[in-house]
Write a structure and sequence with these properties.
The chain has a single domain, classed as Rossmann fold (3-Layer(aba) Sandwich). The radius of gyration is 17 Å and the shape is globular. The longest helix has 29 residues. It is α/β, with parallel strands linked by helices and about 250 residues long. Strand 2, helix 2 and strand 3 form a beta-alpha-beta unit. The model has no long low-confidence stretch (mean pLDDT about 95). The protein has a seven-stranded parallel β-sheet, sandwiched between helices. The protein is built from nine helices and seven strands. The termini are far apart. The chain binds NADP nicotinamide-adenine-dinucleotide phosphate (NAP). The site of NADP nicotinamide-adenine-dinucleotide phosphate (NAP) has 28 residues, from helix 1, strand 2 and helix 7. NADP nicotinamide-adenine-dinucleotide phosphate binds next to helix 1, strand 2 and helix 7.
Length: about 250
């Protein structure tokens, strides 16, 4: 039996990068998938086709995770279609890097809303379903810079640190209903988000990592699979770093 057979997972920001890798991993383990992203574009369409071919049920919704009402609406609609939601992966995230001196209010608000408020929005939206089921695994995508901080990323680091506090609180609050909540803190993962960095900066980062390379989205997805499945049935309130020992 596959690890996620009979389970339904909702993944935000799923059309590329880490979210896409998690969708592929979950599908390969038999999960039905509710995917969201800002737009239902060609990328998203191709992914839905690819995943549906594996035999699982997949639906992609265009939904802005930073908007409370859209999060409520998408969960309501998906619940009608899928019945239950067992796993929530709060993955959607953005960067607007700059030194604090130059950071605008808009750059602060955007990053906090997309990275942190979205986690509140979706968790609130699935909470009552999970409570009724007395089952749930919530996985929030933080970052090592949420633990260490990073110059030029005050907004991003604050959002990712906020996710850690939220994760631990939810784990304490909902644990008695068999709902687990954990965070993953990736280090330097090779996706479009890190592609934006200049080549020399990427090389410098890789050099500083004890494993001497950036991680792949699939390496993050494997940890998400562990947290989503009953392999981690007694793991809750934790932050698992996936960073090649970049931060110890
Ligand atoms: P990515 O390649 O930039 O993908 C992010 C995805 O989120 C995209 O599909 C994007 O949609 C979607 N998204 C953005 N804003 C959204 C919103 N408001 N509502 C719904 N979806 C939205 O990023 P990634 O590298 O895969 O990162 C995934 C997560 O891991 C993020 O939370 C990120 O902070 C975290 N992380 C990444 C790294 C890394 O090194 N890559 C390290 C630590 C943590 P569009 O395609 O429409 O833009």
């Amino acid at each position: 039996m596959k690890l996620l057979e009979g389970k339904t997972a909702l993944i935000t920001g799923a059309s590329r990068g880490i979210g896409k890798a998690i969708a592929e991993k979950f599908a390969s383990e038999g999960a039905n998938l509710i995917l969201t992203d800002l737009f239902y574009d060609d990328n998203a369409r191709a992914l839905v086709e690819e995943l549906s071919a594996t035999g699982v049920k997949v639906k992609m919704y265009a939904s802005d995770a930073s908007k409370f009402d859209q999060a409520q609406a998408v969960v309501e609609e998906a619940a009608k279609e899928f019945g239950q939601i067992h796993i929530l992966v709060n993955n959607a995230g953005i960067t607007r890097d700059t030194l604090l001196m130059r950071m605008t209010e808009d750059q602060w608000d955007m990053v906090i809303n997309v990275n942190l408020k979205s986690v509140f929005n979706l968790t609130k939206a699935v909470q009552s379903l999970m409570l009724k089921q007395r089952y749930g695994s919530i996985i929030n995508m933080s970052s090592v810079v949420g633990v260490s901080g990073n110059a030029g990323q005050a907004n991003y680091s604050a959002s990712k640190a906020g996710i850690v506090g939220f994760t631990k609180s939810v784990a304490r609050e909902l644990g008695s209903r068999n709902i687990r909540c954990n965070a993953i803190a990736p280090g330097f993962i090779l996706t479009e988000m890190t592609d934006k960095l200049p080549e020399d900066v990427r090389k410098e980062w890789a050099e500083k990592i004890p494993l001497k390379r950036g991680g792949t989205p699939d390496e993050v997805a494997k940890v998400a699979l562990f947290l989503a499945s009953d392999l981690s049935s007694y793991v809750s309130g934790q932050v698992i770093q996936v960073c090649g020992a970049m931060l110890t």
